[in-house]
Amino acid sequence: MRIKLILISLFLFSIVLFSQGYAGEKPRIGVLRFTNHTSAGWWSGSVGTDLQDMLIAELASTNSFRVLERKELDAVIQEQDLGASGRVNPKTRSKLGKITGAKYLVAATVSAFEQNTSGSGGGLSFGGISLGGKQDKAYMAVDLKVIEVETGEIFDARTVEATSKSSGLSLGVSSGGFNGNLGQYKNTPVGKAIRACIMEITEYLECSMVEGKDSDCMDKFNEKERSRKEKTKSAIQLD
């Protein structure tokens, strides 16, 4: 009887350990290249990949996810193949079959973009420093989907928005900024709206996938979603 109780206790203890380990596992995610459904003038060339890199870096910085770098996968495979060729010390070579698989893929589409400029402009520029009197405003919306790899089903979906503006006398540095084609937009309302959307996506995914859809942090995002839908409905005019 005593042995039976001990076995039952060990079994229950192992279940507790397993559940704790599973619950504490960071979501394994991969980020796909951004797509664009707007006529935004800043979208060209490698911007979709640039935004992908920005989101990857932002997600990795939270330390809440296991972010898998698929863009560099070819280099990883080549390194593993080199290890299997016999040319590398067996003690230090990378082993085959050890690449971590993603459980979720994050897909993002720029679904809306607006930019308004008012004022006389008439700014001055010298040595990369711009001084202007115009007012700029940028609005951006991104449709976000989280896809479960094993089933192909949409695990989560959300639209995030960001608005940024500058007004009055402004001082901005035009050099440096984002990587790639987005570098010229760093200190503009366009660049700030892009960065705000990336941060909003990161915060939402951290709330939804780590904290849980029933967590307190979802109240803020659900309220934003209700507000977004109400504004969209009010802008629609039906005959």
List the helices and strands and how they pair.
Layout: H1 2-23, E1 28-31, E2 35-36, H2 47-62, E3 66-68, H3 73-84, E4 104-118, E5 124-126, E6 129-132, E7 135-148, E8 154-166, E9 170-173, H4 189-211, H5 217-235
Parallel strand pairs: 1-3, 1-4, 2-4
Antiparallel strand pairs: 4-7, 5-6, 6-9, 7-8
Helix pairs in contact: 2-4
Structural account:
The protein has about 240 residues and is an alpha/beta fold. The strands form two sheets. Strands 1, 2, 3, 4, 7 and 8 form a six-stranded mixed β-sheet that branches. The termini are far apart. It has helices spanning about 1-25, 45-60, 75-85, 190-210, 215-235; strands at about 30, 35, 65-70, 105-120, 125, 130, 135-150, 155-165, 170-175. It is globular. About 40% of the residues lie in helices and about 25% in strands. The chain contains five helices and nine strands, in the order αββαβαββββββαα. It has one domain (about 25-225): Rossmann fold, CATH 3.40.50. Strand 7 and strand 8 form a beta hairpin.
